[in-house]
Amino acid sequence: MTTSTGGTTKVPAVLVLEDGRIFRGRAYGAVGETFGEAVFSTGMTGYQETLTDPSYHRQVVVMTAPHVGNTGVNDEDMESRKIWVSGYVVRDPARVPSSWRSRRTLDEELAAQGVVGISGIDTRALTRHLRERGAMRVGIFSGAAVRDDAALLARVQQAPQMKGANLSAEVATAEPYVVPAIGEKKFTVAAVDLGIKGMTPHRMAERGIEVHVLPATASVEDVYAVDPDGVFFSNGPGDPATADHPVSVVQAVLERGTPLFGICFGNQILGRALGFGTYKLKYGHRGINQPVQDRTTGKVEVTAHNHGFAVDAPLEEVSDTPYGRAEVSHVCLNDNVVEGLQLLDKPAFSVQYHPEAAAGPHDAAYLFDRFVKLMEGQRA
Ligand SMILES: NC(=O)CC[C@H](N)C(=O)O
């Protein structure tokens, strides 16, 4: 058990939303200033996985769980090499974390990685505001950065928007690497890293897949150079409307008929490759408790989400696309947002949520088995 100073700091901090609403609290993590898109996560647990998910790049995450940091920070639950959120907002930080795996406190970790946060504000009021007005730009300022509100607001209003942001290359690996199969190797998959979470190749490796993780800029030739049985497109930050390069790679893979699986950003990119549009949701889905229906089996699964955009595809009819018939395979039961796509004439499918379950329920693990079945089918 480590003793924390979290929450006991008296350094003043202020959170300024682009529409002028202001919350005053105390510094949490690093002292300084930061900007991003304010979004809220409804996960009661799993903050370490949230913080290190590259899809949160340039977002300030508000935790709706009122008490955060209870289990400290360990060395096992990182989803990537660093914390990606651009800011962190909590109501009441844990003062004394308690877990046999804890190595550091959360506020120490945030400070060590230079992540500016704020605590002691009414996160319920902030969440309700974002739910009513929509996700918007925000700044957090602490210590010497706390100045006159009007000047801070002007700077928030000049910060970049999430709409139109092309961010995968900022978070993805620069060099290819291999995650070996666990046990007997059965398949090779080329995984295009648009901001991949570490658990995703692990879930494939557990199923006998050797995963070649490739940079976001990988060409069709790079993908086929690894002689893949299947091609995977990962989650990632930013606006899918900007991801023209991966869309063209997906189209080439569909053309060849290689089994294809996509998660989150990967689902939006498959959607675009099929000719569907994408749009920005008012405040998105983030958390580990979202109900999704698999329309093939009728079963409802509780799932982990982190998306601010969605695919615009018809729910009730099969669509004709340049790659054959496609349909919406999964739908969110809270709001009928498209949560999955599948092709009927090609071995390709994707989901908008996170079957790798980090953090989150394991209900959707069967999707990795579906990918394996597609690759087996292609070999038979
Ligand atoms: N987790 C993801 O892949 C997110 C995809 C996309 N950046 C969105 O917000 O919708």
TrEMBL record:
Please give the family membership noted in the entry. Belongs to the CarA family.
Q: Which NCBIfam families match?
A: CPSaseIIsmall (TIGR01368), PRK12838.1 (NF009475)
Q: Where is this region: CPSase?
A: 1-187
- Oligomeric form and interacting partners: Composed of two chains; the small (or glutamine) chain promotes the hydrolysis of glutamine to ammonia, which is used by the large (or ammonia) chain to synthesize carbamoyl phosphate. Tetramer of heterodimers (alpha,beta)4.
Record the organism. Answer: Streptomyces cinereospinus
Q: Please give the SUPFAM superfamilies that the UniProt record associates with this protein.
A: Carbamoyl phosphate synthetase, small subunit N-terminal domain, Class I glutamine amidotransferase-like
Q: Where is the Carbamoyl-phosphate synthase small subunit N-terminal domain?
A: 11-141
Enzyme Commission code: 6.3.5.5
Q: What GO molecular function annotation could you give as one example from this UniProt entry?
A: carbamoyl-phosphate synthase (glutamine-hydrolyzing) activity
| Lineage of the species this protein comes from | Bacteria, Bacillati, Actinomycetota, Actinomycetes, Kitasatosporales
- One family from Pfam that matches here is GATase
Task: Indicate what this protein is called per its UniProt record.
Answer: Carbamoyl phosphate synthase small chain
Keyword annotations of the record = Amino-acid biosynthesis, Arginine biosynthesis, ATP-binding, Glutamine amidotransferase, Ligase, Nucleotide-binding, Pyrimidine biosynthesis
